Structure to design on (591 residues):
């Protein structure tokens, strides 16, 4: 993992998130993300040599629900926050290409 | 000069996505059901509202373990889930909950029956449990419609090693997987409902003039029918060979990246989508909202105990114990309940071969008409055993047994009661048969004369009179008695 987030990495992250960034934003987010990274580097001060990597912050496992249906939201509630809808569908700009 | 020693070996691996037959989704209790109106089976969890918590469906984990164990996989003692980050309208959370470095199971195999009667072992690299995405509907004018009913449906992804070397092996593997997950009740594996999707990766190893060339690996995404899978693999083998032949040194694995292609059903060709270097950067990290799953021996054994006899083992047993042909044994092991019906009937005293003839004769025809399995037509093992015993004892003939079997579906009556009510029991009463025989002879003097006279017309005339008697009895007369009486009356 790189020590700082450079402009190219910010643009790459922007592309993955499907958002357009101005040069000014690239500079700003780069600085902010680098600060966050530097802050997290404090963790390196800890000795972790003999410690197993953990998968979860809570030391518990096997939390399950039974396979019994419960009521879902109606389409009107589900679609209430959608910027646009078409009947029961969420309406989004034309998607082309693969995922 | 053409090197006649050239060999072309397709090297094919297959990822199969199987939707599990749970009642609810993987992380919420919305229904897992195909065909409902759009966005009716959705809740804040599956549509990715902030602040909600997913809770793992125990049944989905158990179905996955069951399939994994049936594939001979090791089920991990400790398994966890990870976020696979990507942005797409059918994935409202902007990440898919999947498994990255600690999958639920790994290292198994599936035995694939081939046409020549042999079997090929295809190794399984891993099988892990993840959530399905929603559906984008592209046939809208100028926009895309999104239906999130499928978001969060449990999906088992089974990844094979690249062990398949022909179209036949790929299709055999895919069909064997479908049969297995259905057999286990883990999935309906209905292709029309999108329960199974395929992603083959294909390349060619070509040995020519002492050099082995390898074409770049091509992965084809999201094939949702057996036909599309077959056409894709056929097409890719031909396409890669042609491209390699035009440029044997350039079109090679070392020089070109792995690429993704998509299958176009209209042209039945694959089209280039992207090279591996443009591949997504998924930024996997452990899913903080889900607890890991720990599988101890006790739980694993409990799930293993629900598996029972697997289809290929059962087929081998039928050939061995019931002395069935491969074809018959195979037909009876397409699903578990049909074989269960046979086994139960045999336990109830039915003679295996006669019972199989009933099942693969009239019962199979009825199942075919109803578009269901033989077990689903609705006959009981007890009734089947009784009918088979009546056949063995000569109480009914084959034609009558088919009619009785059909009546057994609708009625609660036993086969014997049905046979009596319908007059389908074989008539052995010598007096009654004699009446029919005398009538037949009286009504057909020419045939009777030919039969008495001997010579080349004798056999045919005798057969004709037999037929007349059987017709008079509506098929119910015991043929042995009829023959005996006719011989007495027409004999020298």
């Amino acid at each position: 993992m790189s020590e700082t987030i450079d402009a190219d990495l910010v643009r790459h992250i922007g592309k993955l998130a499907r958002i357009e960034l101005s040069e000014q934003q690239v500079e700003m987010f780069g600085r902010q993300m680098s600060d966050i990274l530097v802050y997290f580097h404090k963790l390196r001060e800890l000795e972790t040599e003999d410690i197993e990597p953990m998968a979860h912050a809570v030391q518990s496992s096997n939390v399950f629900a039974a396979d019994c249906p419960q009521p879902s939201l109606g389409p009107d509630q589900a679609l209430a926050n959608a910027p646009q809808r078409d009947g029961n569908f969420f309406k989004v700009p034309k998607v082309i290409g693969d995922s | 000069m053409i090197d006649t020693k050239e060999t072309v070996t397709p090297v094919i691996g297959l990822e199969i996505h199987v939707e599990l037959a749970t009642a609810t989704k993987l992380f919420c209790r919305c229904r897992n059901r195909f065909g409902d109106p759009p966005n009716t089976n959705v809740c804040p969890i599956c549509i990715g509202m902030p602040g909600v918590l997913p809770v793992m469906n125990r049944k989905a984990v158990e179905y996955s373990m069951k399939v994994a164990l049936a594939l001979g996989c090791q089920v991990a003692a400790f398994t966890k889930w990870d976020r696979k980050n990507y942005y797409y309208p059918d994935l409202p959370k902007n990440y898919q909950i999947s498994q990255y470095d600690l999958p639920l199971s790994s290292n198994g195999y599936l035995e694939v029956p081939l046409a020549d009667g042999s079997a090929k072992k295809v190794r399984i690299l891993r099988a892990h449990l993840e959530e399905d995405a929603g559906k984008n509907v592209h046939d809208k004018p100028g926009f895309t419609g999104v239906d999130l009913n499928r978001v969060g449906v449990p999906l088992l992804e089974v990844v094979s090693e690249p062990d398949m070397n022909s179209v036949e092996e790929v299709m055999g593997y895919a069909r064997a997987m479908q049969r297995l997950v259905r057999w286990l009740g883990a999935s309906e594996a209905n292709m029309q409902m999108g329960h199974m999707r395929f992603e083959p990766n294909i390349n060619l190893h070509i040995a020519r003039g002492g050099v082995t060339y390898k074409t770049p690996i091509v992965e084809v995404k999201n094939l949702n029918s057996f036909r599309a899978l077959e056409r894709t693999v056929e097409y890719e083998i031909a396409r890669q060979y042609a491209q390699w032949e035009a440029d044997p040194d350039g079109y090679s694995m070392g020089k070109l990246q792995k690429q993704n292609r998509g299958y176009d059903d209209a042209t039945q060709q694959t089209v280039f989508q992207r090279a591996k270097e443009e591949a997504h950067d998924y930024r996997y990290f452990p899913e903080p909202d889900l607890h890991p799953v720990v599988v101890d021996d006790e739980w694993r054994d409990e799930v293993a105990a629900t598996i029972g006899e697997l289809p290929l083992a059962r087929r081998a047993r039928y050939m061995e114990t019931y002395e069935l042909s491969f074809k018959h044994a195979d037909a009876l092991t397409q699903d578990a309940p049909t074989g269960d019906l046979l086994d139960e009937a045999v336990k109830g005293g039915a003679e295996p071969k006669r019972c199989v003839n009933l099942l693969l004769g009239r019962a199979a025809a009825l199942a075919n008409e109803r578009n269901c399995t033989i077990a689903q037509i609705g006959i009981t093992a007890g009734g089947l055993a009784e009918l088979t015993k009546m056949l063995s004892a000569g109480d009914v003939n084959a034609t009558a047994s088919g009619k009785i079997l059909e009546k057994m579906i609708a009625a609660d009556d036993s086969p014997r009661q049905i046979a009596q009510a319908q007059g389908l029991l074989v008539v052995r009463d010598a007096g009654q048969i004699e009446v029919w025989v005398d009538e037949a002879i009286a009504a057909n003097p020419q045939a009777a004369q030919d039969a008495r006279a001997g010579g080349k017309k004798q056999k045919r005339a005798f057969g004709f009179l037999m037929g007349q008697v059987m017709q008079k009895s509506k098929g119910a007369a015991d043929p042995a008695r009829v023959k005996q009486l006719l011989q007495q009356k027409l004999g020298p």
